[in-house]
Design brief:
Shape: flat
CATH superfamily of the largest domain: Response regulator
Number of domains: 3
Distance between the termini: 57 Å
Strand content: 5-15%
Strand order of the largest sheet: 2-1-3-4-5
Largest sheet: 5 strands, parallel
CATH architecture of the largest domain: 3-Layer(aba) Sandwich
Number of helices: 15
Radius of gyration: 26 Å
Structural class: alpha/beta
Number of strands: 11
Helix content: 40-55%
Length: 375
């Protein structure tokens, strides 16, 4: 079933999108904070269902429902609102359902069940098991039906060997290269023994955790290869999504916000392996550029609070990023919040001194001095 979401609040869109995406037979084809773009999408795609807030800025959801009825008569309308008083008006418009915010999983399930009984949805099929491997930040494994968990490695060398083979997945890595990387100070015989023992321990861990369906390590042509089958890796998924992103617009804002929030930390960031630095820097640069673009979009729309949230998240990941502190000071200045500008400058100065033993750049100090004089 194709579904369109319409709500003034971006956070509400994200929450409802997550709840609906848990159902195999629901496809959210658009999420909008404005009525106009949503109506264009509905006209073009004739979705089976629209989940729509009643209190919208351009026109009320009740008025929009009349328009939707005229351009897509077979589309069911489900109102989502924080207010009970609209229920009578909603059902007078023959709304399929009326959900109160915050939408609860159990209540939404009842709505989806009614849609299935009416023939709008096929009965939900059980999901196939999958494994999701997180490499951004802390390395975690998530198998369907289980909580994400960290694997228990026998030694740090065993963990690094697995991480490197995963980093080089589906490629044969010679024994000599692996020994040189992990045991550079031992003789060939000892290095070979260490490598074979570590490979054995990785294979045992994979078997013990029931992961052999997705991860296989083979010995081929004097080297080892880690093969992945239907293994979802967050770093790989993140890269693909960045490349497929449409420009930021009301139609695609939810998608951009979700991708921004999906960055859980730097690539292999828990252990900071030197051989992962190039990929770590590439993904971080890609995400930072996207984050700045998202913040700029919010500022253009006069949504300073959302822009502040973006930069605060950036600084949680890297408190020493001077440009993030400067961006916050500029936004606080735009909001006429003098105290916050001063506090942010003091915080930045302290962090840079403590973590890197440096002062703010000349450009930043000049901006702050000019700001003080203007005040």
């Amino acid at each position: 079933m194709k579904v369109v979401l319409v709500d003034n609040e971006n956070s509400a869109l994200i929450s409802l999108n997550k709840l609906l995406s848990a159902s195999n037979d629901v496809e959210v084809i658009g999420a909008f904070t404005q009525i106009g773009p949503a109506i264009e999408q509905i006209l073009q795609n004739q979705p089976e269902t629209v989940f729509m807030d009643i209190e919208m800025s351009e026109m009320s959801g009740l008025a929009a429902a009349t328009v939707i009825r005229s351009i897509s008569p077979r589309t069911e309308i489900i109102f989502v609102t924080a207010h009970r008083q609209y229920a009578t008006d909603a059902f007078n418009l023959e709304a399929f359902d009326y959900l109160l915010k915050p939408v609860k999983k159990e209540r939404l399930s009842k709505t989806l069940l009614r849609l299935r009984k009416r023939g709008y949805l096929e009965p939900a099929k059980p999901r196939q098991p999958y494994i999701y491997l997180r490499c951004m930040g802390r390395m975690l494994v998530h198998v369907t039906g289980h909580e994400p968990r960290a694997l228990k490695w026998r030694t740090t060398k065993v963990k690094e060997l697995f991480a490197y083979l995963l980093h080089s997945r589906n490629q044969i890595i010679s024994k000599d290269k692996l020994i040189e990387l992990l045991w550079p100070d031992v003789d060939e015989q000892k290095g070979t023994s260490n490598l074979q023992t570590s490979i054995y321990r990785i294979r045992r861990l994979i078997e013990d955790q029931g992961l052999e369906q997705w991860i296989i390590i083979r010995y081929l042509e004097f080297g080892y290869i880690l093969e992945t089958k239907q293994l979802i890796i967050d770093a790989e998924e993140l890269d693909v999504k960045f490349r497929q992103l449409m420009p930021i617009s009301p139609n695609h804002l939810t998608e951009h916000q979700q991708l921004f929030e999906a960055y859980n930390g730097d690539y292999m960031g828990e252990d900071q392996y030197f051989w992962a630095e190039t990929e770590r820097l590439r993904l971080r640069t890609m995400w930072l550029q996207h984050a700045h673009n998202l913040a700029d979009y919010y500022l253009e729309q006069g949504r300073e609070l959302e822009a502040l949230t973006v930069y605060h998240r950036i600084l949680r990941l890297d408190p020493t990023l001077e440009e993030g502190h400067v961006a916050l000071m500029r936004i606080y200045d735009r909001l006429n919040d003098r105290n916050s500008v001063e506090q942010q400058y003091a915080l930045m100065t302290t962090i840079l001194k403590r973590e890197a033993d440096v002062e703010p750049s000349a450009e930043t100090m000049e901006w702050y001095q000019n700001w003080q004089q203007k005040r």
